[in-house]
């Protein structure tokens, strides 16, 4: 009788043990994804994978507040501010701004080595911006076909100033700005268009793999076939239609990637063809899904503006074609953004293996526009390794960032 009873207890506690353990969702090898993940010792449960910014913050001993910020042209953008569990904020405002196709979650995808959490743990007051068009933005005043009618021009002239006004009013403190990729393009637009205004908000700027001139872009983004396709599209489809298009959900691609080992290999190579590959760090298989899911919202006009930037070898306003340009800009060719208006003190960080924002283009900007207190640094990364690397983070990347912030904040 007692024996039977203990058997039942044993049975149920065993049952509980199995089911209180979360199901493995990532693997340390790509092959692992095609095995039974729950019995494969290479696979484990990453609580961050399906978590949003707020949940990830909690997973790493922090809280994320949401702030609703209105732009001058009536978009509502959600900006996150990290705080300690005891409700206190850090000191020294650091504002992180994401790049194309992603949002603030990109700064939270590397566990306790996520840029956002790392800086908050170092004691800084970390804010994370979200551009219009992301999951953290809305605009009631727009018709569907106007929704995607923006590029890094609008990010720089509306989204950033709205954030800066709000944050400086709230904290009574100027901002240390870190812009990754298009986050750098946007602040370059702001500085080149309204330099005095920008300086009232921004104490210091770090361009992290930022894109301005894209004369040496390599890999998939510079395939002629893609650029020709854009040209073809522009000839055959009215711009008004193109600039009204965007994608918000590319998650269907994920099941395609995982349909077979061969497909997955193509998907993982895609990261290298687009973002860059070479010596140094390679994204680890357990980060693949985090990285893949960080790509979400893409506006066609944003992509067109970048294609034009690559094609024209210039950093200039959106090209609407000669007739429209004449009406909008009073010039057949779109006006360039004047990088000589960038501040006297900035830092440029480029990845040695970055195909998108290349070493050559960074040095071109540095040599052409550099002022007395400009600094430039190389790290062994491609375009997105900052978000997923464990190998060089403590050696190459974070010390550089900390030194710069401490010096300039
Ligand atoms: C709140 O937490 C932070 C981070 O753990 C700590 O540095 C700070 O001293 C705490 N402040 C108070 C008032 O408890
Ligand atoms: C950071 O995360 C890693 C991996 O999850 C863990 O091994 C390490 O102990 C954590 N470090 C801190 C300081 O929390
Ligand atoms: C995106 O599409 C997938 C199917 O491909 C669907 O399961 C998911 O719910 C969609 N997500 C959103 C936010 O609409
Ligand atoms: C950078 O330069 C601007 C304008 O010249 C100045 O206002 C600002 O204080 C400087 N920032 C630092 C950290 O030196």
UniProtKB/TrEMBL annotation:
Secretion signal span: 1-20
Record flagged with keyword Transferase: no
One protein family per Pfam: Abhydrolase_1
GO biological processes: lipid catabolic process
TM spans (from-to): none
Gene Ontology MF annotations: hydrolase activity
Domain of life: Eukaryota
Domain named AB hydrolase-1: residues: 93-200
Keywords: Glycoprotein, Hydrolase, Lipid degradation, Lipid metabolism, Signal
InterPro entries named among the record's database cross-references: AB_hydrolase_1 (IPR000073), AB_hydrolase_fold (IPR029058)
PANTHER family found in the cross-reference section: LYSOSOMAL ACID LIPASE-RELATED (PTHR11005)
UniProt-recorded name of the protein: AB hydrolase-1 domain-containing protein
